[in-house]
Design goal:
Helix content: 25-40%
Largest sheet: 5 strands, mixed
Radius of gyration: 24 Å
Distance between the termini: 50 Å
CATH topology of one domain: Phosphatidylinositol Transfer Protein Sec14p
Structural class: alpha/beta
CATH architecture of one domain: 3-Layer(aba) Sandwich
Number of helices: 17
CATH superfamily of one domain: CRAL-TRIO lipid binding domain
Number of strands: 11
CATH class of one domain: Alpha Beta
Amino acid sequence: MGQCCCSKSKISPDEEEKPEALPKEEKRLTLSGLLGVVPQDLPYTLAGHLVPTEPLSPRSGKLLTQFREKLSGHFRDLPNDTTLNRFLRARQRNLEQAAEMYVKHRHWRQSFGTDTIIWDFDFHEREKVLAVYPTGYHRTGRLGHPIYIERLGLLDVEALLDITTIDRYLRAHVQAYEKMVQHKFPSCSLAQKKPISQTITIMDLEGISMGFFFSNKNKSILKKVIGLDSDNYPECLYKMFLVNAPWAFTAAYSVFKGFFDPNTLDKIKVLGSDYLDELEQHIDPCNLPTFLGGKCKCKGGCLHAQPGPWEDYPMVARKEDIGWVNDYDFPEASPELEEEEEEETEWAPLAVGTAKKMGSVGLIRFRRRNNNRQGVLKVIPKSEGVFEQSDSWGSVYTKKTMPKRLPVVKAMSKLPALDLPPR
C-alpha cells in the first residue's frame, strides 16, 4: 500500500528457465531498426522548463548505451535515461536481467493500461478513501525528495472495501505513481535545480493492532502492492521511516519485511514514538504535518491539500498532448489555422531527437497523432504543407498534402510494411 519502490536482486529459478517472451505487438520493423538507429535520450521538459538530469560517467554512459541498443530491437520508444538507469540499478547493472525486467514491465504497462491511466481513470471515491486511509504527498525533504505519508494505523480495511474495490484501489495506486514519475519528480528537480527521482516515505503506525499484520487478507493486499511497486517502479525509494511502531512490532515486521529485497531493507528504519530527531535530520519541521510533530497545518488537512513544488509546474491536462517517453513545447499555433485545419490533421512529426534525415530532400518521419505511445506536446497545422528540410519541428502536414509513400520505402519494397502513411 505504500509508495515503497523496491528492487528485487534475484530472479526466481522458474523465471530464469523460462524468460518471458517479448510482446507480439512490439515485434515489428521500424525505420530506426532497419537503419540501425538507436533511440537517444531526449530532453525532458515540464511546463516549458528543461528538467535537470544526472550526468553520466564514461562507464555508466557506455552501459546505458548498450542497454538502449539491447531494447531498441524490441520497442519503438524508450523512456529517458533516468528511468532506464533505475531498471539497471535494480538488477545490479546486469544487462540481461535488467532487459528481462524491463520487458516484463512493458508487458504490464500494456495490459494494465498504465500509459493513459492518469487521464483515463477517475477515482471519484478518493476523498472517501482518504477518510478511512489517509495517504498522500506533502512537501519535500531537506535534499528535495518528495515526502509520501501513509497513516497505516488509521486504516479500516472493511470500510475501505465498502467504499471501493481492491482492483480500483490498485489502479488509483498506479495512477499516483505515474503522477509521481511524470510530474512530481520533474517538479522537484526543477525546484532543486538537480535531478530528483526518489521519495522519502513515512509510514505512521500509531493506533495499529498487531492482528493487522497477521490477517491473511491484509497480507495479501500488502504483498500485491509491494510486488507491483518493486516490479514496475524500482529504485524510487530514498528512505522509509516506520514511526510510532509498537513494542511488539518486531514479530509482525519479520512477516512484513519478507516482501522486500535486502537492498530495500537497508533503506528502512523502524522507530518508536521517539522518532522526531531522526526525521528532522532529513525533513525540516516546517514541512512535517503537526500529527507527526511538525509545524505544518494545511487548511483542510495536509494529506488532502498535498502541497509541494508540483503546484508551481502544471501537468499536461490531456493525454493527447504528451508522449509516453518525453514531452516537448512547440511554438503556439495561430487560432485561425487551428480552427480551420485541426479536424483534418492526422499526422505529426516525431520529436526532433528521433528524427532521421533521409535522401536528398531530408524527409521528416511521421507517426499517427492518435498513437499514445509516442507523440508531441504541441503542433501547428500548416495550410500548405510541403516536405522540406527544416529545423522547425512545430509543423504538421495534413493527410491530403502528404506524399502517398515516403521514397525510402521504395528502396525497401521487399521488406514487410512499416508504420507509414497509407497509400
